[in-house]
Amino acid sequence: MEIGIGLPTTISDVDGKRMVEWARRAEQRGFSSLGVIDRVVYGNYEPLIALAGAATVTERIRLTTSVLLAPLRTNHAEFAKQAATLDRLSNGRLVLGLGIGGREDDFEASGTDLGARAKDMDALLDRSAAAWRGDLGVGPTPVTPGGPQVLIGGSAPASFRRVAKYGAGWIMGGGSPDEFRKSAAAVREEWSAAGRAGSPRLAALGYFALGPNAREAADTYLHHYYSWLGPIADYIAGAAAVSPELVRGAVDAFTDAGCDELILFPCDADLSQVDLLADVALS
Questions:
Q1: Angstrom distance (rounded) from CA 254 to CA 181
Q2: What is the CB neighbour count within 10 angstroms for residue 156?
Q3: The dihedral sign for the CA sequence 16, 48, 26, 144
Q4: What CA–CA distance (Å, rounded) separates 227 from 214?
Q5: Is residue 150 within 8 Å of 159, Cβ to Cβ?
Q6: Residues 6+ positions from 38 with CB-CB distance below 8 Å
Q7: What CA–CA distance (Å, rounded) separates 94 from 148?
Q8: What pLDDT score was predicted for residue 283?
């Protein structure tokens, strides 16, 4: 199983210099991907722009949106153009993890209809694929034939069917290895039923913090970021890997569950976190 690391794009007050250095160091240490999370009503970096910055200082590491809120990208041709541009800037390293979203405030601020998000996501996928094929006259032409690799997020049966229709695979946006195993089996069933060749790529994300203040960092950041979920934020914070033993346990458990790539997102933006995670997870 490959191990990726998230950029600290949702941690407060991270400046651009640190973000760029984080990307550079993550590649030097051998991580497979740089991940970014998407929100609108929050002080985070816009995901595609953040990955464009990372692309300029890296050459090998994949650039993964995990996940981008697809229904909020209402200009489908412009979105396809943005993704194709980043694909070219990175020489084909972009992986588009796309999800349906669910925060009412993100949709309200974007002027979009929360209730229509499934239909809007399918429309984005259809139009983007057409653009990347060259059917709409929208350039540039992606380095990757047919457009960037697409991973679909979500835990509902409709998400698994969407993987089989549109995606190269599935990404779980948080959850236990047992939940991953169960959902991955459902994804494979839909993939086979749709007559897709080969196997879907299966990825997951989690949270980590290491060092003497790890527990405090995880509690502070995750309770703030997920405050809208109420008591569920306690579960998310409690599940963070805040010791070398917990990181190794997560890596082993997701490997056993059939995960192809685990992207671990930081709860602390200190650059030492990149090295601390590499020493534990990549050794």
A1: 8
A2: 12
A3: negative
A4: 19
A5: no
A6: 44, 47, 65, 67, 68, 69, 99
A7: 6
A8: 84
**3-class state of residue 178 by DSSP:** helix
Q: What is the number of other CB atoms lying within 10 angstroms of the CB of residue 231?
A: 6
* pLDDT at 164 > cutoff 90: yes
R_g of the chain computed on alpha carbons:
18
Strand 201-208, strand 169-172: pairing: parallel
Is residue 240 within 8 Å of residue 218, measured between CB atoms? Answer: yes
Q: Which two tokens stand for residue 67?
A: 């996940």
CB under 8 Å to 108, separation ≥6 — which residues? Answer: none
125 near 100, Cβ under 8 Å?
no
Q: Enter the tokens of residue 124.
A: 């984005």
Report the C-alpha gap between 8 and 184 in whole angstroms: 27
- Would you say 72 and 40 are in contact if contact means Cβ atoms under 8 Å apart? yes
pTM of the prediction? 0.97
